[in-house]
Specification:
This protein is α+β, with helices and mostly antiparallel strands. The longest helix has 15 residues. The strands form 2 sheets. Strands 5-6-4-3-7 form a 5-stranded mixed sheet, with helices on one face. A hairpin with a 3-residue loop joins β1 and β2. The protein has 2 domains: about 25 residues, no CATH class; about 70 residues, SUI1-like domain (Translation Initiation Factor Eif1). It contains 2 helices and 7 strands; from the N terminus they run ββββαββαβ. α1 packs across α2.
C-alpha cells in the first residue's frame, strides 16, 4: 500500500518547458489566461511617485499597481504620455513617464475610473 502523500504545493518550474502560469498551470508561451489577466492585482490602488535615483538627477513619474492587463497597461501609458506631452515606457508592470507629471497623471487615471494615491514626498 504505497499511497501518495497529499500535497498542497504546486509546480512552478519544469525542466521540460520552463515556467508555468500560476492560474492555468500551462507553460507560459501556451498560457491562454495570461493575455487578459492583470499583471499585478495588489490592493487595487494605483500609486504615483517621483523617482530620480539612478537617472542622473532627472525626475521620472512612476505609476505602479494598476490592476489592468498588460495590453491595457500599454494603452494607458500611451494616453498618459499624450496628455503630458512627454515620453515614457512600461517596465516590469509599472508605467514610467518622463518628468514630474504626478498631478496630470492622477487627473487622467481618476477620469479613467482608477483609485489613485500620491506616494512619497
Amino acid at each position: 500500500m504505497n499511497r501518495k502523500k497529499a500535497s498542497s504545493s504546486r509546480l512552478v518550474f519544469s525542466t521540460d518547458g520552463g515556467r508555468l502560469c500560476p492560474q492555468c498551470q500551462r507553460k507560459l508561451p501556451d498560457c491562454a489566461c495570461g493575455k487578459s489577466a492583470p499583471g499585478i492585482v495588489g490592493d487595487g490602488v494605483a500609486r504615483i511617485r517621483r523617482e530620480t535615483k539612478g537617472r542622473g538627477g532627472k525626475a521620472v513619474t512612476v505609476i505602479e499597481g494598476l490592476p489592468v492587463s498588460p495590453a491595457l497597461l500599454k494603452d494607458t501609458a500611451k494616453r498618459l504620455k499624450q496628455r503630458c506631452g512627454v515620453g515614457g515606457a512600461v517596465k516590469e508592470g509599472n508605467i514610467e513617464i518622463q518628468g514630474d507629471q504626478r498631478a496630470a497623471c492622477k487627473e487622467v487615471l481618476e477620469a479613467m475610473g482608477h483609485k489613485v494615491k500620491l506616494a512619497g514626498g
